[in-house]
Automatic annotation (TrEMBL):
Protein name from the UniProt record: Receptor family ligand binding region
Alphabetical list of Pfam families matching this protein: Peripla_BP_6
Family matches, as InterPro entries: BCAA_transport, Leu-bd, Peripla_BP_I, TAT_signal, TAT_signal_bac_arc
PROSITE patterns: TAT
Any Gene Ontology biological process: amino acid transport
Every Leucine-binding protein domain range: 34-375
Organism, as annotated: Planktotalea frisia
Coiled coil: none
Highest taxon in the source lineage: Bacteria
Length: 402
């Protein structure tokens, strides 16, 4: 019998079906590539420099586990300076350089995600995570390839307002940066507060850096707010606002969202200016890195961190920002591995479908229990409070879902 190419493929496919073994006919790359843009310089360089080591750790961990269906992974990380156009250029360069081997990308801001979104079509589409929790990205219909590794900023406001209501709060102020990041949850938060019977007595916009602290604190004092939610800040302004309010003698309870919940920043502020952050609360989607008794994945990270980052502050601690990146990478890796194990090619459509199908995922540490992707996000978190004497954020609420 003559076995030509057509009959060989037909016979091979039939055999694979009988044996129950997935068969990927397209030649696989020698390695898969995940690209990333991080703000290693610019206004948020501190965050970028704390996130970057997570990519080195992830590359080693994922490859030690066999990569994706036995194919190793390589990370390509470039500086963006927190300029969306730079991130777009980095993404386009990665596409041109890596071709089909590039299976995913990690962007550094809401602005970058929105700028790149129209590019994610046809051969240029890739699964894309980011540092952003932008509410509008949690929409598979308009952003099928972009996802969040936690709750949106609107979800985070919901969690904080629910907690404020439970504590008997009736008057709240919103102080936020004059950025897209800062403005994101304000309108939604106003409506949610109204539903809960909480009066929003002040909505105050500030510069993202170099804000006029005395003026903003004076307005807060005049508002009569019992609680104040700070949104749209990373390393600066939010502690200055709290410090200014304390100097003014305001008894306001301050709350933050994810980017204002980093222990390293709170510890540094305490060391430099005293314990005025005592009682500061905020929402975190994840456990802190030191809370890993029942978190086996965190324990793996800890072992690798000791070896890879010996002699640095990261030897025994992974920043909240690094944890957020790791969660995003773990979700992408699970989606890619699920796609490969199903015998499907690692196209953006196939990977996105696998991602949206993640259900009751035991993350091994990030969350308080199994979680699911819903509208390309994970809408869960809990409220933590900072104690300067211990330097720890400890939970003051149960895990809350939206």
């Amino acid at each position: 019998m003559t076995l030509n190419r057509r009959s060989f493929l037909a016979t091979g496919a039939a055999a694979a079906a009988v044996m129950g073994t997935p068969m990927i006919l397209k030649a696989q790359p020698k390695e898969y590539v995940l690209g990333a843009s991080l703000p290693l310089t610019g206004p948020f360089a501190t965050a970028g420099q704390l996130v970057a080591p997570a990519f080195a750790l992830a590359q080693k961990l994922f490859n030690d586990e066999g990569g994706i269906a036995g194919t190793p992974i390589r990370f390509v990380t470039e500086d963006s300076g927190y300029v969306p156009q730079n991130t777009l250029a980095n993404y386009q360069r990665a596409l041109a350089t890596e071709g089909n081997a590039l299976v995913g990308y990690f962007a550094d801001s809401t602005g970058a995600m929105k700028l790149i979104a129209p590019e994610l079509k046809g051969e240029n589409a890739r699964l894309m995570g980011s540092t952003s929790f932008a509410s509008e990205l949690a929409n598979p219909e308009t952003n099928p390839y972009q996802y969040l590794s936690g709750p949106t900023y609107q979800d985070q406001f919901d969690i904080l307002l629910q907690n404020i209501k439970a504590a008997g709060g009736t008057k709240v102020a919103f102080i936020y940066s004059n950025t897209e990041f800062g403005r994101d949850p304000i309108e939604h938060g106003r409506a949610k507060a109204a539903d809960l019977g909480i009066e929003v007595v002040l909505e105050e916009s500030t510069k993202a850096q170099g804000a006029d602290i005395p003026t903003h604190v004076t307005k807060l004092a005049q508002s009569g707010a019992e609680h104040c939610i700070l949104q749209g800040y990373v390393t600066g302004v939010w502690p200055q606002l709290i410090g200014g309010a304390r100097q003014f003698g305001l008894p306001v309870q301050f709350h933050g969202t994810f980017w204002g919940m980093e222990k390293l920043i709170a510890d540094r502020i305490t060391a430099e200016a005293g314990p005025f952050l005592a009682g500061y609360q905020g929402v975190m989607p994840y456990r802190y890195f030191y809370d890993r008794e029942d978190a086996p994945r965190y324990q793996q990270y800890a072992e690798l961190s000791k070896a890879m980052f010996a002699g640095t502050p990261l030897e025994n601690y992974m920043s909240t920002w690094g944890i957020q990146a790791m969660c995003g990478l773990e979700l992408a890796m699970k989606a890619m591995r699920d796609t490969a194990e199903a015998g499907n090619e690692l196209t953006a459509d196939n990977i996105a479908e696998s991602l949206s199908s993640i259900s009751d995922w035991d993350s091994g540490g990030f969350f308080g229990g199994p979680v699911s992707m819903n509208n390309n996000k994970i809408g869960t978190g809990r409220v933590y409070e900072y104690a300067p004497d211990t330097g720890l954020f400890t939970p003051v609420s149960d895990w809350l879902s939206t």
